[in-house]
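Hi L.,

You mentioned the student needs an example of a multi-chain input paired with its predicted structure. This one should do, with 323 residues in total across all chains.
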Amino acid sequence: MVATHLMATLDTRPDVLPVVLVGDDQASGLADMLRQFIEQTLAESPRKQRQARSLSGATLFRSAEDDDLCVCITFAGDHIELRDEATPPVGLPAITADFLTIAHLTSGQANPFWLLARRRLQARFTIRQVPFLLRLLRFMRIERHAPSNQMETPPLPAGPNLPEPGEEAPRTR
Amino acid sequence: MSVIYSDAWYEDMKRLINGSEQLAKLAPKIRIAFSLEVMGDGASPYVPKDGGRYFLLAIENGKVTDFCPLPERHDGKGLNFRFTAPATIWEGVAAGTNDPIRCGLRGQIKVRGDMKFLMENADAVKLAIDLYGHQVNTEWPLGAPPYVHA
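Structure written out for the whole complex:
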């Protein structure tokens, strides 16, 4: 299916993997925030770029707060696509969690297996999808720039110019 | 009880957040500036249909240092996050009838900013918006949300 509305990252540096949000302004907030998160992650880390380029596959992110929200993230090697799915495709691995759980997962405050064991994170997958899911979770985890014993959040530089909604995401670090 | 968008309401909000010891512990120690944009949608009697209300919220060391209306849309300088939504959505959050997390996930509240920072400080964000939505006793002289024409 050809997307009718595409919004690609405005970061046009050739070394930056494009992130495409299908649906533009009609996309859900979950898809839009995931898009910003992935764009910012890629823009700041060559290592994350390499990880993303080596990923091949798709997974569904479902919101525990809202059963209607389901975003499919496809890692295609040369780009990443995010798409809201009203009818999620069958056979893809799926991760369901609430906002706080996703935040704790990506920020490394909680271990995914701990979250799975306590059913705060629900995942559906086949054995063959396990390697992809583990690599995806590693990619989504925020890199630590500060020493692990430094509890205080690194300061955001003053004066980022925030764009209009739909424009390039800001670089605040 | 204070009237929505009045000076007293801003002060009440500020006191409310600053009164939370838990937020003071959870919030990052740096200064974070948010712009909240309340866009007229024809349903809210408090915001002109084609206009908007713009606020600046700044938190430092877990305490609100600024929560005030802006004369116009913030130009983005010195801003860390921009939250934009129709008045009906914001006022529903203030009245405790809209879940702000769900509104954000659905895209009814547009969020722009450093998503990594948001993820790393999600507990503080969640606590702040829960305070906003559930504990301020707001007065609605022109009617409270949900609005009939929303």
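You could point out the following to them. The first helix of chain A runs from residue 29 to 44. Residues 1-10, 146-161, 165-173 of chain A have pLDDT under 50 and may be disordered.

Best wishes,
N.
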